[in-house]
Amino acid sequence: MGETQSAARQIMKEKNGGLRNESEDRIDVDKPLWSQDTYLGRWKHYAFITDCRTILVPTSKLWEAKKLCEDYKVGKEPEDLQRKDIIYAKKLRDSAFHPDNGEFMHMIGRMSFQLPSSVALTAAMLTFYRSACGMIVCQLVNQGFNAFVNYTNRNAMSDEPQDTNVIQQAFVIATAASCAAALGFRKLFSGRGTLFARFVPFCAVAAGNIVNLPIMRQREITRGIPIFVKNEDEVCIMRSQVAAVKGISECVLTRIIMAAPGMLMIPIITQRMQPYCFYQLRPWIALPVEIGLCALSLLIMIPSALAIFPQKNSMKPELLKICPEEYEIFREKMGQRKYPDFVYYNKGL
């Protein structure tokens, strides 16, 4: 009898694909289903919560999913609730509600909206790269969208009620920087052939991200973000500007890596297509090919880029010495206790 039960548990593990809580026990709806200590576990987690199909779910269903997760935590869920139902409810809740403060996120700002929006924006930038006016319009739309996404996926622990004009500041500064970069790179590459000219959109996107994200999350830098002695610990020992800069830098790198394969490889592929007869007879085929390649690239790269760094990342306490005042506060907070090997922080997305 014991062997039969053990075999049944093993089958359940294989069926659930290595979920964090693989046994018949209840899942923890406040934690990822997969271990965040490995790249593969993080990849599965981000593929789970960035599923673009969730944006088609009505708002009422999203609130119902959140309510079901809250009921499940206190043991008040329906008796006939199945494991797959609570996992799907968790998926909807994690994709639509901010993990720090639980606020409902606008559809445009969710990571699950990244695929359709990025496909449209990337296709537009790769199509209208020849026109300075078209490039500026694309960058205006792109950086406005990025500003909204960056604000939506901030570390909300640094929020204060008087924060109202951050989006306007970030939009103006990031858009200006991105457009200046686009026109500058366009002029730089203008005499170097069509292929080099098609790399201009990526340079503009990279420059925009480098400016946009820090401006949108400037409050985290000026006020610091909470750091913890233990991972998943709820007790904040202090706020750190060093951790904020490190976390935002990781997010900037993630966004650039996310866009790089599509925006760099698609121009090369379409350039190689041009000598062939099927392309010369059907030049209109370039747009659907670009859209298809862009969708495929982002489908892979969104979870792949987000998974590079854990959302709750770590750093050595010695890094706080960059800001001596912070390290002094850290020493006071620790007192006579042994210094940990790492301190942890939420970098946001």
Supply database-style keywords:
349 residues; mainly alpha; 2 domains; four-stranded antiparallel beta sheet; 14 helices; disordered N terminus; membrane; transport
Oligomerization state: single chain
Q: Characterize the biggest β-sheet.
A: 4 strands, antiparallel
- Tally of separate helices: 14
H/E element string? Answer: HHHHHHHHHHEEHHHEHE
> Proportion of β residues?
under 5%
Please identify the structural class as seen in this structure. mainly alpha
Q: How confident is the prediction overall: mean pLDDT?
A: 80
- Strand order, biggest sheet? 2-1-4-3
Write the layout of secondary structure elements.
Blueprint: H1 2-15, H2 39-49, H3 59-73, H4 83-96, H5 114-127, H6 132-152, H7 166-189, H8 194-197, H9 200-216, H10 218-223, E1 225-228, E2 238-240, H11 241-273, H12 277-281, H13 286-306, E3 312-315, H14 324-334, E4 343-346
Antiparallel strand pairs: 1-2, 1-4, 3-4
Helix pairs in contact: 2-13, 3-4, 5-13, 6-7, 6-9, 7-9, 9-11, 11-13
Structure description:
Helix 3 packs across helix 4, helix 7 packs antiparallel against helix 9 and helix 11 runs antiparallel to helix 13. This protein has 2 domains: 95 residues, no CATH class; 234 residues, no CATH class. The protein is globular, with a radius of gyration of 23 Å. It starts with a helix and ends with a strand. It is mostly helical. A 4-stranded antiparallel sheet has the order 2-1-4-3.
Q: What's the short story on this structure?
A:
This is Sidoreflexin. It is a multi-pass membrane protein. With 349 residues, the protein is mainly alpha-helical.
